[in-house]
Amino acid sequence: MRPPLFVQFVLGILGGIGADPDQLAHMKRTADRLFGDDYRFSVLGAGRHQLPLASMGAAMGGNVRVGLEDNLFLDRGVLAPSNAAQVGRIRQVLDGLGLEIATPAEAREMLALKGADRVAF
């Protein structure tokens, strides 16, 4: 593997690490110790923990992951109509915190994805 490594912190999954700010801070400290500056990270908070932990992860310098596969709701009792709605919600939060949002092209570059113009489907 060539740096930078991409680390996904997954919190709140049954049998996994708890969805708790202290646990996220521990995961970040551990990755800092193991990888130094040679990694990027994102945070996945399952279910109702998605927005708070994604926000915390972004404030810690990480990237976020949101979507219906991790959380079906926008608010308590309000089903998210789409992944786009969840992306819009986290964007509002990150904009409010004054954090920089990656463009789609920047996100593709970070994840080494080809992009729609370079696939055959």
UniProtKB/TrEMBL annotation:
A GO term for molecular function: metal ion binding
Transmembrane parts of this sequence: none
Gene3D superfamilies membership: Aldolase class I
Top EC class, one word: transferase
UniProt keyword list: Acyltransferase, Metal-binding, Transferase, Zinc
Pfam families assigned: BKACE (PF05853)
Cofactor(s) required for function per UniProt: Zn(2+)
Listed EC numbers: 2.3.1.247
PANTHER family named among the record's database cross-references: 3-KETO-5-AMINOHEXANOATE CLEAVAGE ENZYME, 3-KETO-5-AMINOHEXANOATE CLEAVAGE ENZYME-RELATED
Name of the protein: 3-keto-5-aminohexanoate cleavage enzyme
Native organism: wastewater metagenome
Taxonomy of the source species: unclassified sequences, metagenomes, ecological metagenomes
Gene: kce_4
